[in-house]
Amino acid sequence: MSADDIPALEEQERRLVLGQFTYEDAWALGSLLVELARERGAPVAIDIRRGAQQLFHAALPGSSADNDAWIDRKRRVVERYGCSSLLVGSRFRAKGTTFEAASRLDPDRFAAHGGSFPIAVTGAGVVGSVTVSGLPQRDDHALVVEALERFTGA
Fold this sequence. Notes:
By secondary structure, the chain is an alpha+beta fold. The chain has one domain: Beta-Lactamase (2-Layer Sandwich), CATH 3.30.450. The chain is 49% helix and 19% strand. It contains six helices and five strands; from the N terminus they run αβαββαααββα. Strands 1-4-5-2-3 form a five-stranded mixed beta sheet. A hairpin with a 2-residue loop joins β2 (45-50) and β3 (53-59). The longest helix is centred in the N-terminal third of the chain and has 18 residues, at 23-40. The protein is globular, with a radius of gyration of 14 Å. The two termini are 17 Å apart. The model has no long low-confidence stretch (mean pLDDT 96).
């Protein structure tokens, strides 16, 4: 899938909705992401939030504090727009511009680069986010989607 395939990105978000999202769910999803990243030797940091509370964080070998800064910037995009950071960036590109040029948001605080995905719960909407940083943005996004697919059985 192309990163600019907006319908496919929107379909992922419609499909990857949880029935609930508990502390145990955050641990299980985060642990699954760590397992997938370790299998691939991926030098990533992983963050899972419900609202303002960080429920899970891991930094694997090869990641750095820069990855945590990227996590914060990508997560803020999900919090503001209610959809994945890759989808937000793709929508701006589809309009012939970039997020940085047209959003009017501080690029030191917001980054519409792939890797942050909304955690949505049936009947409640978006309640949090799951974010990966350390790979090229499309790979960060794909890792999160793969983990959510396994986690939800979708």
